[in-house]
Amino acid sequence: MLYGYLIENFKPYEPIFTVDIDIDMVGNSLRPKLKELCDSGKLCRYEAGVYYLPGKMKLKGLTLISASAVARSKYVNRRGKVRGYYSGYTFANQIGLSLQVPYVQEIVTNEASAKVREIDIKGQKFIIRKPKAEVTEENVYTLQFLDFLSDIDKYLDGRSENILDKLEKLIKDENITKELIDTYISLYPTRIYKNLYETGVVYAITQG
To answer: Which InterPro entries match (predicted)?
Structure first.
């Protein structure tokens, strides 16, 4: 019953959190059933509360999902539901505005229990922060953009070329509008207004 539910609802190598297993179990029988599946090789345990289906690749002693995949699923996008976004040097590197490949990934998420904290997943560290407003599918890219813009100077590695081009592309690709900016910009330090004009990006933001 449990295995049938898992293969129907989860893909191989997709992190499975026990809190997301929505199936009626008698008493506290979920944990022993998960152990049975792991013992039989039908399921793999990544760490406490996190499992995955092994699929066709079953290499003994090799974990086939990464800490980054687990963090993304837990804090950024879980089963299609937006929970947060990458920030700081992580985001700057993703959009090509920093040459630094950060060892510690930074994530802003609704799942954060403190304003900022460092967590460890299988030896890989992540910085987890609370958002300035609840992250939703509608505002995620706007909040990510405003977070980055408010501290843009420290992410540029001393470079200034192509900044506007990169930011304009981001605004266009993610449909970041003036209406959305106006809704959330007051949550950020006042320096963000200076950064809007100094980068020239203020002229790229269109009416929503």
So the answer is: DUF6088
